[in-house]
Design brief:
The protein is an alpha/beta fold and 735 residues long. It is 40% helix and 15% strand. Among the domains are: 209 residues, no CATH class; 241 residues, no CATH class. The protein has 27 helices and 22 strands. Strands 9-12-13-3-14-15 form a six-stranded mixed sheet, with helices on both faces. The longest helix has 34 residues.
Amino acid sequence: MYLQSLEITNFRKFGTKNNIIEFVQSDYKKTISTCQDKEKSKSFVACATTLIIGKNNAGKTTVTKALKQVIENEKVTGATFNLSYIKNLFEQYVEIFTNFSDGDLDEPHKLEFERVELPVMKFKLKVGLDSDSKTTSVQNLKNLIPVEDNKVQETIVLDVKFYITEEEHFKERVYKIYSIAAKRNTTVKFNEFLKLIDNTIFSRHIFDIKGTRISSSLFNINNLFDLKTIKANLDDGDTTLSSVFNKIVQYRLRDEDNTSRIELEDEISKINDFMDDHIGKSHKDAVNNVVSEMTDKNNMLVSLRSNLDFESLFKKLISYEFEENNNFIPENQFGLGYSNLMKILGQIIDYVEQYDESETHDKVNLICIEEPENFMHPQMQESFIKNIDDALSVLLGDADKKNINSQLLITTHSPHIVNSKVHSSNTFNNINYITTNEENFSHVVTLNDNAISNSKLSTKVDENRLNELKFLKKHIKYKVSELFFSDAVILVEGITEEHLLQHYINESEELHKYGISIFNITGAYAHIYKPLLNLLKIPCLVITDLDIKRSKADKGKETPVTFKQISNLEGHETTNAVLHKYVCTGVLPDEEPLDEDESKSVLLPNEINYFSKDNFKVVFQKDPINGFIASSFEEAYILQNYDNDILNATLKDLKPNIYKRIVGSEGEENTDNSKKKSFEWQCKLASSKSDFSNTLLYKIITSDGKAPPLPNYINDGLKWLKERLSNPSSPSKGV
């Protein structure tokens, strides 16, 4: 059996919508068959791991808390509930008692109060049946397994609800606090209502798929689930690693038939005999003589015996050191990251050790690891799942003999662990992304390859989407996994935009407050991220280039060299794939074969606008800047700031000969020439974009003056981004 999904209602930050967490099934053979890459499907941990990711304070930890609430029946308090839900109930009560001033309720208000909603917390668990039908747990659940059309269904649905145990008593207490408030001519405060719930007893009730309550005498949810929570927090003591390493060694020696253990226990027995002979017999008379001075020897005699055994040997007598440059270093100087990793591993070993090999283990075993990235450097986080997988393969190579049915759940805010998961299993499946909606409720987005590619493998379009999905899985490793934890994302085409925009955003009074990630993914691939970003509901600004198609002569690659300036878009084409997809509609007929360095082009409309829909906006150089249309960010920046001192100092340092030819010698400069030859500047900077961005950024930072202004199309995009971030529920502003 395995847990398919958990629906969380009115618990902590979860409300009543977008509140379902989906889990990967626990059956090893079925699990690895879902991995897209058969080679990487050997990584059981990656394929069998459910990942919970999202922004801070969105509700990631709530998932493990919810499982604990359901399985262990923890005490319910006011803070256990979704506070918005509780506040709504509180306001209903306030409305009933608004005119309650004489200490008594009239009949209409009494009836209304009788019908008022009482606090209730709900969870729905779907359990898949993939175990042998003859196993004990399934037999105990036989009354819960639904039968439809004489066919046994493969899923059990359990509704777990927490109700007030004594409803009438709760209503009396509510009535009392409002009655006292009315007599004092005061109002009941929300924190008083929360305290009332804190002191109210709730009972857990479990219902089947038909809504029939299941008697606790017939079913105990603890017999179905076993929850192990591992928190990646290091102990303050010096023996953390010793305890873990001891568990590993003991685990390796666990078999009664293990020759090493038999020999070790024989040696322990010899040591005990030696200690008894040399210490017990030799010194017990001295001890008893002291005792006899206080009491009669016949009343109390002391016998000294050695009590060394297998467990105490490892616990007290063995210490661990690590070797570095032929020196032995104490364990308390072991790196925090490795210590944390070993502690996680040790707790997993503890979990495995609790089961006997001879037993059949058909419980749903849930292992929850919370934020394992603590104390780990990025490279270790990147290989976290592989490290766990490799270690378990070594330690638990024969664990399949135990027939343990387990599922692994990891909550994290590490983009490196997301990479580790995606690249180890080669899929986005089994990732639950949690964000918050406009009301600050947790909002769960279940990621999977089909949702991202929107493909059914039936058409050529579907094949293209699958190719894009394949690209996305590979490309997301290069820093882009940060988008899962960002407030907003900006996709740019080149290194100049990437470097400079980060500085402008940091200097912005509004935008610097948000976590905005800037990714350089080139214009041809920005649209591939749109389906994923749509699912995540993260505002995405794409800053792309117009990429006007020009002849080789216009680009200075053959004579006569022209470096043609463009003042309007009529009749011009673009090679930009993003504009092709979202902006342009007229594809040129009967195109001539393209040169190797050219891409397929489409006709630009005479009246061209930005593309904007929901959380996705594309901006580009659609309008003339000081009389000319720019094809790239560099050209647009030069057109915008042709007479700016910082820009001109950058161009002069970077390309002194070209600057002298275009602008003029010192004392005779005419910066207007840079405006008139902006496209030539673009061509000359094409191979020096990194140098251009770094030099320009250096001069901006070290200058006492204000940074040159950004081109209008980028300011338009940043303005849209500010609106989306400050008011996420606002509709798209269109173009």
